[in-house]
Amino acid sequence: MRRLAPALALTCALVQLSLVPQAHAAQLCAADLNGNGDAADEGEMAQCLATTDGGTLCPIGAVDCVADALGSYACPLGASYACKTSASRAVPACSPHSCIDTSATPIENEEVVDDPGAPGDGPVDADGNCLGTIEIFGGRALRCRPPGASVAFQNCCKDKGKIVKDGMGGSLSSITTKIAIAKGVFTGMKAAYTAFKAGATASEAASAGANAIIVGIDPTSIAISLAINYMIEVLLQGCDQQDMETGMLRGSGMCHEVGTYCSSRILGICIQKARGHCCFNTKLGRIIQEQGRPQLIAFNSLGWGTPEHPYCRGFSAEEFQALDFSRMDLSEYYSDIEARAQSDIQIDMKEKIDATLSIIHP
Length: 362
Prior knowledge:
The protein is an alpha+beta fold. Helices cover 28% and strands 14% of the residues. It has helices spanning 6-9, 180-197, 202-216, 224-236, 241-251, 283-292, 317-322, 331-334, 342-360; strands at residues 28-30, 45-47, 49-50, 56-57, 63-64, 66-67, 73-74, 93-94, 108-109, 139-144, 255-266, 269-280. A four-stranded antiparallel beta sheet has the order 9-11-12-10. It has a two-stranded antiparallel sheet with strand order 1-2. A two-stranded antiparallel ribbon has the order 3-4. It is elongated, with a radius of gyration of 26 Å.
């Protein structure tokens, strides 16, 4: 990202918290303190303080003014900075940063990618063979947001551990289906978010989300108690349903992070970042995608796409058949499987791969 000029780096901007009604817009100032070209990092945004003269004071870099012998106050930062009195400070203060009203300076938001994932099962012939395009280990483009203005400075990318288990959809016999676990999680997240917006408490909304997940997929694939606690936490933090879904799948090891991008700007300054991901049905799917893509020429130019638009398509039947599994390190997946020898797992995987390929290419 292009670095801002020093003058612009100190520019502050008013932003509005998503949880604050429009009629009472929160006045926030933002400053690029670390010189990395944005104001979306910790400590670079703050709510402006109301002052006795009806104005505002940015607390970022604020210092107490100094009184002379006559009791008049002057700003130690320079005569161009006014001393203002706020209820939270004992003496007048001044700041090198100012506040700008968002009603006159709108925030520019990047459109959130709504990726439905691989299409549903298409037409089949009389023998049940798929007539459409088969995608193997396909994923979905998702994003979550770290602390910033749009999420009230909460971390909506926080991992909560392994909530989604790798049992359902992990076998290669189900690889031509839609990513069932991810879609089931999405259904639950949407139900929880909708209930919360309609006035349900965080606990009630989380229970509604958990019920939707159980209906959508095998409940043994989800650690329900952990999922409920997770949903309560993220709902109270003001995260949206895609933040919630990404966090749950990401913490369960099913997402590949593509990178970070700016999702909201004001006056050209980034005030909210987002992390783009490709999330898969299982941890095994993510591992094979990560280690299989470098073997295929088709992914050389596109790779994983961009953080704003992750490229998450699955392998075609021909691409999957061309993969050399002997060159893949699947130890991360082996460690999650209990009470089975690694050699047994390798044999079982080879049998499933061979069976799948025989279906694809009889």
